[in-house]
Each structure stands twice: as structure tokens, then as C-alpha cells.
Amino acid sequence: MTVHGLFAAKSSAAAGLSSRPEIAIIGRGFSGIMMAIALMKSVRVSFHLTMYDPHPSISGGQALSSPQSTEILNSRVRDLSVAAGQPDDFNDWLCANGEFRAAVPAAIPGFQQIFVPKGIFSDYVHQRFSEALARRSDITVKFSHEPVHALRKLATGRFTLVRDGGTDESDVVVLATGFGVRSRNVEISDEERPVVRARRLVDPRHAVLLGSGIRVVNQLFQMRDGGYAGTITLLSRHGFLPQSHTRLSAAPSFPVDPMPSTLREIVRFVRKACADAEAKGQSWQSAMNGLRRRARSLWQALPAREKRQFNRHLRAIYDSHRNRLPAAVHARLQQELAEGRTVLRCGWAGRRVPEGLMVRWSGQPAEELLRADQVIDCRCSAPDMQAPLFQSLFVGGLAMPDELELGLAVSPTGEVLGSSGRTPNLFAIGPLGVGSLPDIDLVPEIVTQTYAAARLIAAGKRMALKAG
Ligand SMILES: Cc1cc2nc3c(=O)[nH]c(=O)nc-3n(C[C@H](O)[C@H](O)[C@H](O)COP(=O)(O)OP(=O)(O)OC[C@H]3O[C@@H](n4cnc5c(N)ncnc54)[C@H](O)[C@@H]3O)c2cc1C
């Protein structure tokens, strides 16, 4: 059964039930879909759900929809369950999938340690979504294909959502807009620019990929697998490419001693924890996995000045150690670099020009032209706090930026913090909380946050029904 078909049937069959609480989710990426699953499993009263996103149906945002669904995810199966309290759920789903078992026969005792293509994870999430919906004949779900531009709170406590074609009202709103509405990735199309077409006749091809994270690696191999034989430059400010996962299990392990309180001492502590893990026959990766469990309290205890320092000087290194590549993918990347077909360079990307890109190389005072017939932006930017939707929240005092101004100020349970504390019935899930909560852009943290938010909504709606 497809999710889309199920939706159509469900929506029309249950239409016209107007006394139920209304919940709006803005964004149908992984965070939005995950929030819908958590709500359907946690909120026992009937409700209307509307999911807004200009992208088609349940595209799944950047994590689940991609031209290349064969890309390997960089998390192991054991870390990708979408069922609360059931860490084996994704593994069980894979075990029950005959086709997958046939393709990957070495499943003893299961698939927990392996890495799977994005398309498989996407199928799993969509199936769990469909199943959750199929069990709830008492709720209605509507898709809107319009972006939401503004949100206001009414005197009644409800929200008005302003979209292209009009307004809607809702009792609860969940912001799940992640990295924003996606724009086209290829900034300079060589088919459109005569100067580039002319140069192609004499020059070998050269593409520049901006960024140094997982997306760059995915893009690089997508191009190579598609037959691109030219040189590829990976351009980033710091030049830290993702590290490798270990072939060991890397179960989280970290010293239980109290952590120091300054950034400098914390870095020293983490380095020692990694070295000790290696000395004990474990891996630095298991220490990093252990660190993630303590990251939230560590982050909250750091003064704003040190958080800014971390962002400026250490985040790129931290990201390269937490967002790791499966060992085989990492080896392929090293091979590319060793052969010289792909080069990694540090510098600041400036404006695009028809001949390529203006770049200020690290340590150089002035920009110079980097000739390229393609420039592809693979950087993972923070959510855009200038977007009209967020500006409307700031103006209304419903939300405020976090202290680093990377995203919204949110609680671990996803409640949005405004000028007078928590804004009742307004939630922000996933990367929107990137300045408030470490690792909130990763699947396990998003899953935990959605269930926590759903429990709060469930409690609130029960009370509302009793009162009403
Ligand atoms: C290629 C890739 C691989 C990844 N691999 C892993 C992994 O292996 N393990 C892991 O833990 N994490 C992984 N992640 C990270 C994690 O899954 C992401 O943080 C996740 O994609 C965030 O999802 P999201 O829904 O919050 O944001 P997005 O994917 O950015 O989706 C946001 C959605 O909101 C919509 N939207 C935006 N603004 C509006 C608006 N105003 N109105 C209506 N709709 C709007 C957008 O159109 C979009 O569809 C990966 C991410 C990517 C991109």
C-alpha cells in the first residue's frame, strides 16, 4: 500500500469532523514525518493533522528524498529506529524484508552493524508512517502543498498560519522546516552559459564542490558513478573531511568522571578519552559515541562566549568525527584524493562568475578566480532565521533565536522559547534547534525529541478535552 493512496482514502473518509483538535506540522522532511508518526502513536484523542510543504507529497526532505537513493547512510542500522523504546525496530523491519535478506545474506545475528542505502531507510520510515496512520481511523490527515510564510497567535490561543492561498487556524503548530525550502543545487549550469560552453572545447572539465561534509562525499561519488571524469575540487573553509567508522561495533563508552568546565580542558579530556579507548582495544569512535550522550549537559553548561569559540574553531573538527563514513566509502574517498583526480583545498567561496568562482585561499589576502564549469553547493547551512516565517514569530514574541543565532531557542522536548518563556502549543523539531541542542540534526536525537513533544501535546489535548 502506498502512503499517498492511503492518505487520499483516509482524508476523504473522515472529512467533516470539526470538533477535534487541529495540529499543523510545517515541513514534511524526516522531522515532519517523524513528528506525525509520534503524534499518531502518542495522542490518544482524535485530531486533525495538516502537513505543509511545497515539495510533493511525503518527499522526506533532504534526508529521505534524493536523486540518488542508493547513497549509503552514514549511521548504522542500530541507530536508525523510529520506534520509541524499540532500538531493534529497523533491524526487525530489515529481517522481515525477504528481498533485503536475499541481497544481504550475512545477517547473524542481525543487521544492526551495517550501513544501508538511503532508499531503504526511506522505505522503512514511510512504511512505519503508513502503518501508524492505518491504525488510526479516527484521525484525518491533509496535505497542503503551500509553504507557510507567517504564524500568529490569536487571542483564543489558537494560531493563524499564513500560506500562499489564504490562512488556516490550528491549536498546535510544529515547526519542522529543517534547512529550509530547497533550491536548485547547481548554481552555474554549463548548458546555459555560452562562455562555459566555449571553454569546454579547449579545457578539461573541472567541477567545484563547496563544503566538506557527508553531502560533498555523496555528490562526489554521484558524479563519478554518473561518468564524470574531470577534476573535482572540494573547497571548504577548514578542510576537515568526514572520518571513517570503525569496523568494530563502537558501542558508546566514555569516562564517568566529572567533565571539566572550560572548552580547552574539555578538548583535552575528550582527546584523552579517545586515546584511552584505543589503548584498551576499543576505538576512538566508541569514545565519540559515548561523548554524544553527555553532549547536551556539556553544551548547556558552557558560557555563550565558549560556545561561539567552539562554533568558530572546533565545530568542523567535531562534525568530521561524529558524521562518519562507512569504512568502504572512506577508503574510496582516500583513493580519489590519492589519485589526484579530486583535490581538497581550504578557502572562502566568494561570488559566482561565468568562468567559475571567486575564492580567497586560506592565508591569502585577496580573492582570485577559480575556473570551473560547474559549482555545486553541498554546504549544510544553518536554518535561515531571516525567513519570513521566523521573522513573524520574532515580531510576535512567540520565538527568539538561540544565543548563537544559529536557530530557534528550544527546549529538549521541542518547546519553542519566546520572549516570555515557553510558547504554549508551539514546537520546533530537529535542526531548527541546532544552536540550543547538540546533535539535534541527527536521526536518534530527532526521534527522541518528536516522542517527547508528542507526549506533551497528548497531555495538553487530554486536559483541553476535559476542560471543554
Ligand atoms: C544526505 C543526508 C544524509 C544523512 N544521513 C544521516 C545519517 O546517516 N544519520 C543521521 O543520523 N542523520 C543523517 N542525516 C541528517 C538528518 O537526517 C537530517 O538532519 C534531517 O534530514 C533533518 O530533516 P528535517 O526534516 O528537519 O529537514 P529537511 O530535510 O531540511 O526538511 C525540511 C522540509 O521543510 C520544508 N519547508 C521548509 N520551509 C517551509 C515552509 N516555510 N513551509 C512549508 N514547508 C517548509 C522543506 O521543503 C523540506 O521538505 C542526513 C542528512 C542528509 C541531508
What's a quick, concise take on this entry?
By secondary structure, this protein is an alpha/beta fold.
Walk me through this protein's architecture.
With 468 residues, this protein is α/β, with parallel strands linked by helices. It has four domains: 3-69 and 123-184 and 384-459, 3-Layer(bba) Sandwich (FAD/NAD(P)-binding domain); 74-116, no CATH class; 206-243 and 324-377, FAD/NAD(P)-binding domain (3-Layer(bba) Sandwich), CATH 3.50.50; 263-322, no CATH class. The chain contains 14 helices and 15 strands. The chain has helices at 3-13, 30-42, 61-64, 89-95, 98-103, 118-134, 194-200, 214-225, 263-279, 284-301, 304-322, 327-339, 388-395, 443-467; strands spanning 22-26, 48-52, 140-144, 148-153, 159-163, 166-170, 172-175, 206-210, 231-236, 342-353, 356-361, 368-371, 374-377, 415-418, 421-428. A six-stranded mixed β-sheet has the order 3-2-1-7-15-14. Strands 12-11-10-9-8-13 form a six-stranded mixed β-sheet. Strands 4-5-6 form a three-stranded antiparallel β-sheet. The longest helix has 25 residues, at 443-467. The radius of gyration is 23 Å and the shape is globular. 37% of the residues are buried. Mean pLDDT is 87; it is low at 1-16, 184-190 and 463-468. Bound molecules: flavin-adenine dinucleotide (FAD).
Structural classification: alpha/beta
Number of helices: 14
Fourth-tier CATH superfamily name of the largest domain: FAD/NAD(P)-binding domain
What is the quaternary state of this protein? single chain
Summary tags:
single chain; 468 residues; alpha/beta; FAD/NAD(P)-binding domain; 4 domains; 6-stranded mixed sheet; 14 helices; 15 strands; globular; disordered N terminus; disordered C terminus; binds flavin-adenine dinucleotide; FAD/NAD-bd_sf; FAD-dependent urate hydroxylase HpyO/Asp monooxygenase CreE-like FAD/NAD(P)-binding domain-containing protein; L-asp_N-monooxygenase_NS-form; HpyO/CreE_NAD-binding
